[in-house]
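Ops channel
N.P.: pipeline sanity check, posting one input/output pair.
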């Protein structure tokens, strides 16, 4: 039985994208700090969207007409889709959303790519910047690593095709980076389905980006079967013009056009039209059924290979069988680098037995199917639907007269790895994806896929998140096969596969629930699914599953609980608390986590070895939740108890589970101690955490690299705040950055923020503008009221600066206080740029305090600027959280007082004061004891400003009323 996992604290800053190392100057009051901002490797590539169709070469027209179907040529003019275009235009022009995401979905061949191309052309004509995004694993993408500049345009459209094949984390990274452009951004995703991958992505977009994500289903272009005739005629006329057919009206539509459901796809109609024109040229009857249409086009393709091979000059040594097998391989693997392509051909059996060596075969194949990107080979047969039909028709088991090849089964077997320990091959994920998509329409391919997974179920995990997610949506996987795959899923979290595992776990859980009526079993299945969803950061869905589990457990007879049932209840409580905390629902989280602590404490008293580490993990979570609720001493106590539980016993032995919990507890404890005024204990705790995690990584690097990275970062952060032994701090920060760089390549959405924070820490360690004596003085002032998260050294340093600045104002050291507040504001500004919800109020407070200090020094220009910015930021905080209204009243009055003292814009000072009074009047109605004196003070400020404006009579009336009120109260 597993316990709850301790999540890595979230947050972090996601910076802008640079095309190289960039020197950035930051700072206020003419103090310049030079930082080197290093570029990060991106999971995507972006290029200008191709707005002009690529012309078709004359050779293609004469000998390889199937290429007329490619979207990039757009031989058939775009038509229809008026409602869809209008809906997308309305989405674009919605002023409420700066950044918005829309998924256009429909089956392959429905016209998604053509619609996107038309949208791109129309929006580009309106002045929009139009881009296409490719995943970094897509060899057809461009070489550039960052978006083109989009300044000076109404907005930017980014089209992402095959969105379901991206890792969700990489799509999130793209969307986050697009959001910093400053202009409206619309991300148009294209995919065949809206399955688990989209549900996960939509939740993450809404939770982490605060961006609207919606869907638009693309239906048939011909809404009624009878309309297909007109669609056929338009395509036929276009193909006839390209192929030089003078009388296209003589080419009749196939008999099955109206009755066969596959002709609901625009691509199927275009394929039928092209086939009919070619058959007319050949003087043959055109096939009618969709499968026969595909077979006809593929036969023409094969005829083209024959012609090339039979050429008297013998420039094309690859015979048609070799060419067919190469096309089959390419359609499975997708584009590959040249050396890898050679290895694949040799592995598949194309090793020179058909009169050509692999290098020559690749050259011949590239002649027929030119690579979409330089340096690659094995361009697949397009469009996708035709390529999938080629895979199916080449594989034995169908009933079409198209000749199959027994070699196909052998090739499939050798291209997929034989054993779990075989080294990973880059072509396995695309090959599995191609098989899955083909299996949706071809039963004999579905049988091949089932057989491959039954004998090698671990293949599902080799395909990555997108393959696991796609498998979860297949209805032909039976319970036995689902269980076989499930047996190979790691017991705990998996950074690389958590998203796909969550999708597959949902399918597996649904299947298991359908096979049992036992209440306790159903509860545990729900709890297990909750854990999987939580590991994938799907905390909303996890909460639902944990609550379902708890409802079942609580319905059982508590007098007859088994140990497993009691443990399941504890797991559900702890997991629910963890997910609620991840959603910011700390009060609810703490209630459930505290109940879990009580349950685990009872079990650990009987089974300390097995349940002690689980209790410790739950205490760590409880400590984090208490900290967020500002119950700091209780948080420290809970975390210290976790440390004590995990310490080695008298025999000096400790389990891996206990060691991992110890390392996490020490890491959290160190940051808590730093902020509660015990820096030396904080240093000792973080240093020990590093040592524990280093030993853990030696035993299991994959599981413990995140913990080591975090502990190194925190150890460096403590030394950075203390400014002691900065050499060790710099080394630790560099190691943390290196680890986070690796981890970001695996799961960008979870670690990109930590990587940026670690890099900032490295930069700050080189920054001598913040003297050590100020850091020590800030620490000596104590930190019991700080709101900084334990996970960010910048937030901690900024909070310490504010604390010391407050003391300086109290002591009359206004110049020193001003410098401290300005330094704090710069740090909070960097944090608030990308996490305004957490740090916007802190930035406003630092600016407000800086303005007060500057006003005391009669430095009114920066005082007014900082005060005005504090007011605007606090207004934004009030919009997000009305509880911030008292803070808005405070900064408004301060702004008015500074204006009054400076004699600047007294009318604006009056407006600010009246607004503050209105706020205090509303607050005083609800809590007169709390806000009554503040309301009186605001009126006193009003009196002073009215005198400054020369309205002495009005000022005297208000002053008299205040005096009368004071006498009555006395």
């Amino acid at each position: 039985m597993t316990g709850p996992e301790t999540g890595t604290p979230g947050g972090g800053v996601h910076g802008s994208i640079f095309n190289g190392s960039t020197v950035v100057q930051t700072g206020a009051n003419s103090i310049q700090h030079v930082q080197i901002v290093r570029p990060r490797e991106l999971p995507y590539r972006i290029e200008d969207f191709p707005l002009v169709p690529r012309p078709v070469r004359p050779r293609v027209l004469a000998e390889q007409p199937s290429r007329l179907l490619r979207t990039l040529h757009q031989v058939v003019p775009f038509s229809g889709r008026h409602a869809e275009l209008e809906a997308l235009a309305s989405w674009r022009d919605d002023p409420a959303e700066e950044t918005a995401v829309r998924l256009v979905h429909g089956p392959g061949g429905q016209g998604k790519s053509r619609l996107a191309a038309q949208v791109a052309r129309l929006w580009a004509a309106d002045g929009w910047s139009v881009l296409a995004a490719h995943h970094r694993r897509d060899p057809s993408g461009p070489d550039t690593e960052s978006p083109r500049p989009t300044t000076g345009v109404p907005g930017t459209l980014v089209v992402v095709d095959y969105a379901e094949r991206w890792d969700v984390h990489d799509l999130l990274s793209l969307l986050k980076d697009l959001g910093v452009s400053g202009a409206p951004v619309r991300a148009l995703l294209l995919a065949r389905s809206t399955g688990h991958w989209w549900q996960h992505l939509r939740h993450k977009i809404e939770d982490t980006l605060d961006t609207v994500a919606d869907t638009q289903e693309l239906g048939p272009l011909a809404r009624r079967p009878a309309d297909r005739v007109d669609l056929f005629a338009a395509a036929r006329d276009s193909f006839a013009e390209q192929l030089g057919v003078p009388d296209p009206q003589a080419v009749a539509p196939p008999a099955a056009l109206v009755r066969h459901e596959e002709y609901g796809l625009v691509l199927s109609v275009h394929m039928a039209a092209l086939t009919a024109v070619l058959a007319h040229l050949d003087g043959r009857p055109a096939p009618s059924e969709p499968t026969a249409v595909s077979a006809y086009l593929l036969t023409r393709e094969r005829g083209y290979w024959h012609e090339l091979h039979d050429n008297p000059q013998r420039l094309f040594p690859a015979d048609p069988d070799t060419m067919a097998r190469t096309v089959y391989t390419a359609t499975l693997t997708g584009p590959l680098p040249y050396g890898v392509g050679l290895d694949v051909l040799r592995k598949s059996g194309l090793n020179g037995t058909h009169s050509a060596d692999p290098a020559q075969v690749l050259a011949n194949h590239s002649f027929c199917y030119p690579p979409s990107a330089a340096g690659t080979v094995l361009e697949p047969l397009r469009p996708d639907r035709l390529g999938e039909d080629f895979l199916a028709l080449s594989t034995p088991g169908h009933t079409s007269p198209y000749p199959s090849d027994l070699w196909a089964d052998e090739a499939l077997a050798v291209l997929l790895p034989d054993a779990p320990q075989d080294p990973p091959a880059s072509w396995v994920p695309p090959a599995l994806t191609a098989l899955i998509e083909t299996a949706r329409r071809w039963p004999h391919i579905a049988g091949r896929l089932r057989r491959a997974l039954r004998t090698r179920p671990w293949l599902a995990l080799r395909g990555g998140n997108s393959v696991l997610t796609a498998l979860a949506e297949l209805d032909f996987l039976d319970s036995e096969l689902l269980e076989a795959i499930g047996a190979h899923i790691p017991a705990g979290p998996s950074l690389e596969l958590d998203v796909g595992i969550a999708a597959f776990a949902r399918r597996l859980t649904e299947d298991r629930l359908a096979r049992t009526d036992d209440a306790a079993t159903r509860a545990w299945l729900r709890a297990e699914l909750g854990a999987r969803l939580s590991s994938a950061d799907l905390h909303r869905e996890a909460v639902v599953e944990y609550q379902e589990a708890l409802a079942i457990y609580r319905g059982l007879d508590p007098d007859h609980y088994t140990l497993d049932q009691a443990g399941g209840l504890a797991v559900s409580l702890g997991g629910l608390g963890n997910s609620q905390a991840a959603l910011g629902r700390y009060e609810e989280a703490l209630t459930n986590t505290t109940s879990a602590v009580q349950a685990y404490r009872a079990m650990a008293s009987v089974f300390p070895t097995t349940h002690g580490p689980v209790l410790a993990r739950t205490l760590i979570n409880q400590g984090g939740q208490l900290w967020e609720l500002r119950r700091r001493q209780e948080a420290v106590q809970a975390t210290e108890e976790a440390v004590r539980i995990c310490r080695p016993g008298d025999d000096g032995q400790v389990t891996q589970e206990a060691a991992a919990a110890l390392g996490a507890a020490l890491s959290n404890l160190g940051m808590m101690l730093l902020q509660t005024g015990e820096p030396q204990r904080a240093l000792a705790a973080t240093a020990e955490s590093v040592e524990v995690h280093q030993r853990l990584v030696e035993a299991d690097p994959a599981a413990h690299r995140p913990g080591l990275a975090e502990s190194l970062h925190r150890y460096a952060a403590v030394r950075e705040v203390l400014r002691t032994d900065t050499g060790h701090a710099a080394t630790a920060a560099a190691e943390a950055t290196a680890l986070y760089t690796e981890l970001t390549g695996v799961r960008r959405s979870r670690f990109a923020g930590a990587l940026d924070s670690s890099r900032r820490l490295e930069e700050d360690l080189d920054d001598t503008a913040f003297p050590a004596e100020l850091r020590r003085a800030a620490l000596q002032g104590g930190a019991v009221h700080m709101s900084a998260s334990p996970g960010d050294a910048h937030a901690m340093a900024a909070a310490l600066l504010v604390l010391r600045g407050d003391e300086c104002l109290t002591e009359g050291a206004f110049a020193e206080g001003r410098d401290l507040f300005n330094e704090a504001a710069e740090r909070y500004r960097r944090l608030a740029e990308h996490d305004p919800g957490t740090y916007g109020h802190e930035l406003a407070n630092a600016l407000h305090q800086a303005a007060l200090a500057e006003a005391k020094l009669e430095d009114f220009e920066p005082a007014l600027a900082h005060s005005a910015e504090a007011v605007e930021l606090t207004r934004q905080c009030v919009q997000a959280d009305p509880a911030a209204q008292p803070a808005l009243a405070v900064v408004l009055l301060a702004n008015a007082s500074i204006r009054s003292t400076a004699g600047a814009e007294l009318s604006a000072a009056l407006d600010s004061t009246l607004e503050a009074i209105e706020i205090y009047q509303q607050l005083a109605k609800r809590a007169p004891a709390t806000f009554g004196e503040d309301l009186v003070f605001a009126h006193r400020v009003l009196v002073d400003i009215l005198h400054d404006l020369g309205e002495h009579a009005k000022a005297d009336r208000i002053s008299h009323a205040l005096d009368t009120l004071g006498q009555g109260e006395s």
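N.P.: looks fine end to end. Residues 788 and 795 are 5 Å apart (CA to CA).
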